[in-house]
Design brief:
six-stranded mixed beta sheet, globular, SoxB_N, Metallo-depent_PP-like, Thiosulf_SoxB, alpha/beta, Thiosulfohydrolase SoxB, nucleotide-binding, 27 strands
Length: 573
């Protein structure tokens, strides 16, 4: 990092004065020493997805928005997000925010995240606040326990142990429930913090399973933290995981929780949410009395708070790449003002938490040979996040086709989690788990008629491109391999998908096609291929990678988008 970049980083992230800047140039660790502000501090992270070790995580090249939502936080990428937040290219904050120059910046600044570095940063910030006479809460926005190798091999237990070592005060949930209701309830008994959820209730009687909120005395004021679990758990995942539970988005119940907290003396109300940024913005316009929403699920990062009506919204990033420090200036009427700082978890430039480092080494020891065995080398960039396409999903399609050449179409789930692999980097099982760490990982082969394939594509487009956030019930668009089509995000429901081709030929609505899919429920609507035994997708990928030795995935986007500047990153070989 040169002097100009460091100066920008410090001014953009920490607001240091000239004297402090000079001192930081002599001691870069002072980057994280923030001047006091307000009466209370919230240390917030979200969507860790069990990533225990330093890794790379590239932001999406494309986030296609429904027309009424274009140009707002949550749908900004590349140059647009840098312009919106006033961030210069090739700076550390640009590395966290944008896919531009990613490989160059990854080599310059190193990997992000890792449990040890994140804990050390949380402890350092909390100690700093307390040394100045303040108080801090550590808040976890959910999607923490699952979707990594260490999580999968310990059924989430290792990540709960880390939360306890770190001192998490409150958490909410989503992917945690894919461990199954019994396992989640078992692990929550071991969690020393508190799980909050106004909307997790008994399906039959409507009784809440968890406290909706907790009131804390911070800086001489009463602050309520209300919890919101992801409202579409049963839509997104097999119902068997959460039998007997409801996660419904219930505005009336949420309003009652806010009103009750106020009636019990809360002067400010903070919603710790796993709804996603757009849904939280819609709720901010409809629920009275919310001062601040800490938003998770959509993996967005907001260097500045987003003001919607009378509510501030701060999104907590993903994969452990940043810790959000939110300093509150409280008064009797609520939050008078706040300061938001993005604290990058640049693992090579942060101290480690020695006890977490020791615990992690011991926890990983039995699994180390399995997790970190090199399976192949990637000659090109492998990434996951995007609205429609990723090089990792293309590699999945190539792997499935290589092992099952009779397959005509491959569907991959559009989950937002998954790390990034740089050109020349070895691919390990730990990487595969980071992309495919489902508790329902089986790859299915089954028959679908052409009209069913088109119907699936239309249903997904209707979900993702609904202009009303209350009807968006998932992530990005499921990726396809062996299939091409034209997408019009602004067309009416049922008419967004056009010119579908399979194998270079127009889709025949009456013909049966052999389809492969994993991480979802699409196989339920098809006819299983006789004689095929489903196997985990990460085993399929391992077999393919070991056979190839080196993989080169050249981007080949298979969707043409009408009315949007959709493109994939160029590859330099």
């Amino acid at each position: 990092m040169n002097r100009r970049e460091l100066l920008f980083w410090l001014s953009a992230l920490a607001g240091f004065g000239p004297k402090a800047l000079a001192q930081v140039l002599e001691n870069p660790s002072r980057l994280y020493d923030l001047p006091p502000y307000g009466n209370a501090t919230l240390l917030y992270f979200s969507d860790l997805h069990g990533q225990a070790f330093p890794h790379y995580f590239m932001e999406p090249p494309n986030l296609i928005a429904p027309k009424p939502l274009m140009g707002r936080p949550g749908y900004l990428t590349g140059e647009a997000i840098l312009r919106y937040y006033g961030v210069e290219r090739k700076t550390p904050l640009a590395y966290l925010l944008s896919y531009l120059d990613f490989v160059e910046l990854a080599k310059a600044f190193g990997p992000i995240g890792g449990l040890s570095a994140l804990t050390a940063l949380i402890r350092q910030q909390k100690a700093q606040v307390e040394a100045e006479g303040g108080q801090a809460l550590v808040l976890d926005g959910g999607d923490t326990w699952t979707n990594s190798g260490l999580s999968l091999l310990t059924q989430g237990e290792a990540i709960v142990e880390w939360q306890n070592l770190t001192g998490v005060d409150h958490m909410v949930s989503h992917w945690e429930w894919t461990l199954g209701r019994e396992r989640v309830e078992e692990l929550l008994k071991r969690f020393r913090g508190e799980h909050l959820a106004y909307n997790v209730v008994d399906e039959l009687f409507g009784d809440p399973l968890f406290p909706a909120y907790r009131i804390h005395q911070l800086g001489g004021h009463a602050v309520a933290v209300v919890g919101a679990a992801y409202p579409y758990v049963r839509v997104s995942h097999p119902e068997s995981f959460t039998e007997g539970l409801s996660f419904a988005l219930d505005e009336k119940r949420l309003q009652e929780a806010v009103d009750q907290a106020r009636a019990e003396g809360a002067e400010a109300v903070v919603l710790l949410s796993h709804n996603g940024l757009q849904l939280d913005a819609a709720l901010a316009e409809r629920v009275r009395g919310l001062d601040l929403i800490l938003s998770g699920h959509t993996h967005d990062l907001t260097p500045r708070p987003w003001r919607v009506g009378k509510t501030w919204i701060v999104a907590g990033s993903a994969a452990g790449k940043a810790l959000m420090r939110v300093d509150l200036k409280l008064w009797k009427g609520g939050i008078a003002n706040l300061r938001v700082r993005v604290l990058p978890v640049l693992s090579q430039h942060l101290p480690k938490a020695e006890d977490v480092e020791k615990w992690l080494q011991e926890r990983v020891a039995p699994h180390r040979p399995h997790l970190f065995e090199p399976l192949a080398v990637s000659e090109t960039l492998l990434y996951k996040r995007d609205t429609l396409y990723s090089t990792f999903d293309q590699m999945v399609g190539e792997a499935v086709r290589a092992l099952y050449p009779e397959v005509e179409v491959v569907f991959s789930p559009a989950v937002r989690w998954g790390t990034t692999i740089l050109p020349g980097q070895a691919i390990t099982r730990d990487h595969l788990y980071a992309y495919t760490g489902f508790t329902y990982p089986e790859l299915y082969l089954f028959w679908l008629r052409g009209e069913q394939i088109r119907g699936v594509l239309e249903d997904i487009a209707s979900n993702v491109f609904s202009p009303d956030p209350f009807y968006q019930q998932g992530g990005d668009v499921s990726r396809t391999y062996g299939l091409r089509y034209v997408l019009d995000p602004d067309a009416p429901t049922g008419r967004r998908v056009r010119e579908v081709e399979v194998g270079g030929k127009p889709l025949d609505p009456n013909r049966r096609y052999l389809v492969a899919a994993y991480g979802g429920r699409l196989q339920r609507v098809g006819e299983a291929k006789a004689g095929y035994e489903p196997k985990p997708i990460y085993q399929v990928l391992e077999e393919y990678l070991k056979a190839e030795g080196r993989v080169k995935v050249l981007p080949q986007a298979n969707v043409r988008v009408i009315g949007r500047n959709y493109r994939v990153p160029e590859v330099s070989l």
